[in-house]
Amino acid sequence: MNRKLLVKFCMVLCGFIGIVTISIVEVTPLHGEETPDSSGSMNEKLNIEKRNLEKLQTQLQILETQDDEEEQIQKIEPQNVEKDNSKQLNKAPIVINPNENIVLTKEIGEYGVPVYSIDATQVKITDILQALSASFGKSIIVDEDVDSAYLSSYVNISIQKSPLQDILEVVLGIRGLEFIQNEDSIYVITLSKLNEDTAFEYYRDKGVQLYQKAQLKYPNDRRVAKAYLELGNYYYDLGFNFLALQEYKIVLGKYKEPQLIKEALFKTGRCYDSLNDHENARRVYFQFMYSYPKDPLVDDALLSIGDSLVAQGLYHKAIDIYERVISEYPKEDTACRAQFNMAKTYITMGNYRNALQSLLQAREKYNSGQMRLEIEYQIGNCLYLLNEYQDAGSVFGNLLVSEQGGDGELLENASFMLGDCFYKQDNYLAAFQIFRKTTDTYPKNNKVPYGIYFLGKSLSAMNMSDSAIQTFRDGMQAYPDSDYASKMALDIGNCYFDRGDYNLAYHAFDNFVKQYPDSELAAEGMIGMADALFNDKKYDEAINSYLDLLKTSNEEKIRQYAFKRIGDCYKSMGKLEQAIKAYLVGLDKDEVAPKPMLHTDTPLDETTSNTQPL
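The structure corresponding to this sequence follows.
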């Protein structure tokens, strides 16, 4: 939890104190004692938060006591069964009187829960803790860092019918102490022992308990609506959107406080969004817009409507909404977010030109921050998808230089994309250098197998086949489950073939087909096997391999290519009649299969596999 959320929660608790009225409970340190100064602004905020909780606890406890007294005066004679039950519950109180200045009473309250009352006059906090320990049956252990002067000070305290935990919080809170309890003991510590996150969790959970207590005890008080709202916010911040939704619905259905209803309505839309209930989310957002047309959050609601339409694949409608946000709220941050979200929608639709235009307009409004980084990355991505690799590489390069030393997935992806831009421009040395540096720098990135694959491809393109083969083998061993493992296995065969080692090429292609029989590249592996045999002048075996290929593939271009190669085999063997027959079968409108069918050219899937956004 960050500081911003902590401060927000402190403010919320301060506001909720207004739910109950203040009555007097005597909890006063004796005059003349010094309270240790808190160190740092965060400790000061946490101390304020703690005091607010103490006040809220005390106030709720007083109201409970008052309600109990009123019920005793006004209660109607219960039925016989209820009388019997109350007799079992209302056992005689247990009184602990360790000395003449302390009276601790334990009795069974509502629902059979033990409650305690304490009256102490000029008594050390240590003596009170000992009495509570004896009553509660738990050891109270004081941390060695707690100054003994804290617990030896004298206090006057009077609390009636409260859970023991609440009493401990008040008693220890007087001296700025906290406690953590488990099954057998209660551990008393100083605030400094709690780090920021731990302290926030501690106080937040205490606040939630008090909100829940207020809901149960005062369900008909209109001011308890704040408790439902803040509980909803608590669940919302934790990502428990379904639970948050229930709390917000209670505020909307049961209470009439305008400000609370407005916030609950907007947050209800947010919850539906998070739960992927986009139609209900839009319904709530439209209701919010119509109910509060001048509210500052109307543009956010409209933007969220556009986002929900995108989530359902209604891209054209979403773009209409984004354009409305841009035109109606041109000076708000939402206008730029709408511009950016519209660009991403165009990318999803494959309209990269419009996406690029929208991104350039969004760039004019954002000069720094994470959004600017995302905009620059997507500009490079659009240029890449438009096959404008030189411009894309310039954008990615400038981004990496301007954010040098920065961290984040976008920068890592930009490094991989930069390497690919160099590869697409046939600058294999630069591509190799970028991919090697990127894979070494970001070894945990999920695109590392992609980087290793193109490391090998770059080496192969520079006629460094041995290094390429070793790179592919290392990549397959390190990432055997990656989609690129099969491509590396196939390219090992291509490396052997390109350097004229057809026997090793055949075995490499054969291993690929056996290891990845279900791969979409399996046909290329079989073509490689047959071509290796053909180039090794093993024509009979090559013909059989091409026939095996025809049995497994119905793709027209592959079949044309196989029949042409069979004809070439017969021609090389001097069997012209069989060669002519094979050529005729392979003809399609007087044309044979095009040259790209040869395995040494671009692989069948390579023209499309790398044109998708990374």
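The mean pLDDT is 78.
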